[in-house]
Amino acid sequence: MSRIQPDYNFKILLLGDAAVGKTSLVQKFVHDKFAESYLMTIGMEPSERFVTLKNGTIVALSIWDLAGQERFRFIRHTFYRGAKAALLVFDLTRDSTLKNTKKWYQEFIDNCGKETHILLIGNKNDLQNIIAVSDDECQKMNTHIKSFDFIKTSALTGEHVEDAFTKLAGLLVM
Ligand code: G3D
Ligand code: MG
Asked: What is the arithmetic mean of pLDDT over 6-15?
């Protein structure tokens, strides 16, 4: 029995304000579970998962999730080092988190450069009756941050969670 070897290894980041659902998205993607309450994210928590692309290419993703809190700023360079792609996550029910993706975009390209890949993720799409942003605003931000695509997800139901990570993996091998 031989272990499966990935064709590629990439480090990817989850960026976005506190409580938008970054840790929940990683938990759903890596462990296929959603917990109503997580311990507050302290610093970094890399997790790993393989994805198989349509053409059979196997990609190992090392997924780094950082707390949004400013007090963790001192470890930022370690967090960003070597990353070529990011999911920029905001909360569809909180307008301010969409606006702040500009700031996260800037920090990402300042640290990782422009030869990188971004997907804009609007999370908590299951909370349909309290959505606070329009598709138009989201598309404008998508263009502004040069994101390849805007995807609505729910870490609660799992909607488009697999798609988001797989799409980013696909961009990385192109
Ligand atoms: P963060 O890692 O970006 O800080 P978390 O965010 O993953 O810790 O999630 C913050 C809160 O939002 C958590 O609730 C979590 O359960 C909830 N959440 C995350 N994703 C979704 C989603 O897709 N839908 C819904 N309805 N809730 C979500 P608590 O209550 O633990 O603070
Ligand atoms: Mg977190």
From this structure: 96
CATH no. for residue 159? 3.40.50.300
Q: How many A from CA of 74 to the centre of ligand 2?
A: 17
Provide the residue range defining the domain that includes 131. Answer: 8-173
pTM: 0.92
Please name the helix (run of DSSP H) or strand (run of DSSP E) that holds residue 142, with its range, or none. Answer: helix 135-144
CA 89 to ligand 1: nearest atom:
3
Residue 3 resides in a domain: no
Residue nearest to atom 31 of ligand 1 (CA): 37
* Averaged pLDDT, 78-98: 95
The half-sphere exposure of 70 on its side-chain side, counting CA atoms within 13 A, is 1
